[in-house]
Design goal:
Distance between the termini: 28 Å
Largest sheet: none
Number of domains: 2
Structural class: mainly alpha
Oligomer: single chain
Helix content: over 70%
Strand content: under 5%
Order of helices and strands: HHHHHHHHHHHHHHHHHHH
């Protein structure tokens, strides 16, 4: 088994385990022991810090991926690359500090309905610092052929730290302020652990060496950093902007409800992570051989496979909203349509398949920056329109509208440039099956206890959606997964 395959398997295991820990913390514990305002204040701290941290990288992560192989020489401390990376990171943090103090009066004014967030607004500074240095060291570690340690720390260890912190809060060992400090400190802890790991590997050697930093190299580093900055910052802002704008238009109370219910909608997207860890490599290799038929095949298969999985998970969530809100405090029921719209937005993303990766590995890779910039602008405009009218449901609907538009435009671009059209009659059958399944299951009366109702509805969704997909052979890849799973189950029995 190759190193890429081994690390992919490990990373996937860490991600799924981390999602389980995160579900327990975010969906089960937080809503029962924290108020929506307390959840929202933490969410706003995280959102603003993540955006500032991505800004402060100055796009140097992309330059690291592209140019580190030129510097790679373990005996020569990689030609001083770690020193250069940390210097740029420190410079980015100093720029952020100036920007933060400049924007702080506006932040306080725009979040006047979120007093709890305002009480902790200065924690954005250490929170951003910790995330920034983790981002820098993680990309450096990945370039040393270790992609799993950062994933382990970010996806699992961080969530375990947060779960421990909220458990200590429940036990009364500290108050909310102590938990917020713990929450921010957990990000610092994983950054420190990553430093220790690099020291242990003998790769933390931030010694200066300017031998390769001539004017042409500095120009290349600067140009690619600018391009990476635009792409990375817009991508991160797209994810975080909704909660930030809810905090500006509404309050941290609404942010707390939005983030908690949004978490359920994001579960729809989880299975696509496995595909996205494998398919880009195949697409890149196919482009290197000018093998467009293979790319077309990947494009088609990724759309139908992800559409089936996404709709199945969304159906499972939406027909069980009564169960979901029975385990959440009453006030969180205001986020019911957040689950639907965020879930639909993620289904649309999945139905777009690997279109973004195809653009990214083609000669038109710069178009992904254009798409992301347009996406960010569109989601800001739609949030401005819909949040004042429909509250947190409006923010979720804005996400759905913007995803629909961007996915459609990217589809038109690929169809125009490469004559690739991934959609077939099977996609329509899947949509009709999903609509029919929802229509049937929605007539089923609510049962008690809640777990019996959940089990019945989940079974019906599987019978009326998955079985027809299987017997109609709509997706051979889905059929193979089902058959392999049944064979493993038979061996266990």
């Amino acid at each position: 088994m190759g190193i890429i395959q081994r690390q992919t398997i490990k990373s996937t295991a860490y991600i799924y385990t981390g999602v389980l820990v995160g579900f327990v913390t975010t969906a089960l514990v937080f809503p029962r022991v924290l108020t929506p305002s307390e959840i929202g204040a933490i969410g706003l701290l995280g959102s603003w810090s993540a955006v500032f941290a991505q800004f402060a990288t100055l796009g140097f992560g992309g330059a690291t991926v592209k140019f580190f192989p030129i510097f790679r020489d373990s005996k020569q401390n990689h030609q001083g690359f770690l020193f250069l990376l940390l210097s740029v990171t420190l410079g980015g943090f100093l720029i952020f500090l100036g920007l933060f103090f400049l924007l702080c009066p506006w932040l306080l004014q725009s979040t006047e309905e979120s007093p709890l967030f305002q009480d902790y607004i200065n924690l954005i500074i250490p929170f951003t610092l910790f995330q920034l240095f983790f981002l820098a060291l993680d990309v450096y570690n990945r370039m040393l052929y270790n992609a799993t340690t950062g994933t382990l720390l970010r996806e699992l260890i961080l969530r375990v730290f947060i779960l421990i912190g909220i458990s200590l809060f429940v036990l009364g060992l500290f108050r909310y302020q102590g938990f917020v400090n713990w929450y921010v400190g957990a990000q610092g802890a994983i950054a420190i652990l990553l430093i220790f790991f690099l020291v242990w590997r003998g790769e933390f050697r931030p010694l200066p060496d300017f031998s390769l930093l001539d004017r042409p190299m500095l120009s290349k580093l600067g140009n690619l950093s600018l391009f990476s900055f635009l792409t990375g910052f817009s991508s991160l802002a797209i994810i975080r902007i909704d909660s930030i704008m809810i905090g500006n238009y509404l309050s941290d109370y609404d942010v707390g409800i939005y983030l908690t219910t949004m978490y359920f909608g994001t579960l729809v997207l989880l299975p696509s992570r496995a595909l996205r860890s494998i398919a880009p490599t195949l697409i890149s290799e196919a482009f290197s051989k000018q093998d467009l038929p293979t790319i077309q095949s990947i494009y088609h298969k990724s759309t139908i496979t992800q559409l089936v999985v996404g709709l199945y998970l969304l159906l499972g969530l939406w027909v069980n909203t009564n169960t979901i809100f029975s385990i959440l405090p009453q006030e969180f029921s205001a986020g019911q349509y957040v689950i639907l719209f965020i879930g639909l937005a993620n289904v649309v993303k999945m139905a777009g398949g690997m279109g973004d990766a195809i653009v990214g590995y083609s000669d038109y890779y710069r178009m992904n920056t254009v798409f992301n910039a347009g996406w960010l602008l569109l989601i800001i405009l739609t949030n401005i329109i819909f949040i004042p009218k429909f509250g947190i449901s409006g923010a979720a609907f804005a996400s759905l509208v913007s995803v629909l538009v961007v996915t459609f435009v990217r589809f038109l671009f690929l169809n125009h440039k490469f004559k690739m059209q991934p959609y077939r009659i099977q996609h329509l059958w899947v949509l009709l099956l999903a609509i029919g399944t929802f229509g049937i299951v929605s007539f089923v009366p609510t049962l008690s206890p809640f777990w019996l109702d959940f089990l019945l509805r989940g079974t019906l969704v599987t019978l009326f959606f998955v079985l027809p997909v299987f017997f109609l052979n709509i997706s051979p890849e889905i059929n193979k997964i089902i058959i392999d799973g049944l064979q493993r189950l038979r061996l266990l029995i």
